Amino acid sequence: MGSEYEDLLDEIYSNLPKKQSTGERFEIPKFEYFTEGNKTIVKNFKAVAEKIRRDPQFISKFLTKELAVPAEQQGERLVLQRKLAGNILNKKLEEFIGKYVMCKQCNRPDTHIEEMGNRLRNLVCESCGAQAAIR
Ligand SMILES: [Zn+2]
């Protein structure tokens, strides 16, 4: 863990509302990836999806849209059809977690997404019971 990673975490936490805290710190997972030709391959895509308990398809769609790169899941991996430089993938992952995983009330990651019908979805917190509509 470099200090750059810590700074990034602090940045994320400072952007979230602070209410009660359990003192436990959620460790934000990171993608491990490499480039091969014109592709970027995320080695631990499935593991990250499991850690944050979100549908891999949903994460893949988010990345495709945000980065404007076609992506395909292949077993444990996600293959993106472009060379992606720097830390952009993990920045997007952190954005995703901030938006679709962390509870806005208690700042815990113990949440799930509930389909409300009519294409509406709520982020439901299992720690404090808060519900928030996802846009
Ligand atoms: Zn909560």
Give an overview in words.
The chain has a domain at 18-100: Defensin A-like. It is built from four helices and seven strands. The protein has helices spanning 3-15, 45-52, 56-67, 88-100; strands at residues 33-36, 39-42, 71-74, 77-80, 111-117, 120-125, 131-134. The chain has a four-stranded antiparallel beta sheet, with helices on one face. The chain has a three-stranded antiparallel beta sheet with strand order 5-6-7, with no helix packed on it. A hairpin with a 2-residue loop joins strand 3 and strand 4. Helix 3 (56-67) crosses helix 4. Bound molecules: zinc ion. Zinc ion (ZN) is lined by residues 103, 105-106, 108, 125, 127-128, 130.
Number of strands: 7
CATH architecture group name of one domain: 2-Layer Sandwich
Instruction: Determine the strand fraction and express it as a percent band.
Output: 15-25%
- CATH topology (level 3) name of one domain: Defensin A-like
Please state the overall shape, judged from the principal axes of the Cα atoms: globular
Annotate the secondary structure layout:
Elements: H1 3-15, E1 33-36, E2 39-42, H2 45-52, H3 56-67, E3 71-74, E4 77-80, H4 88-100, E5 111-117, E6 120-125, E7 131-134
Helix pairs in contact: 3-4
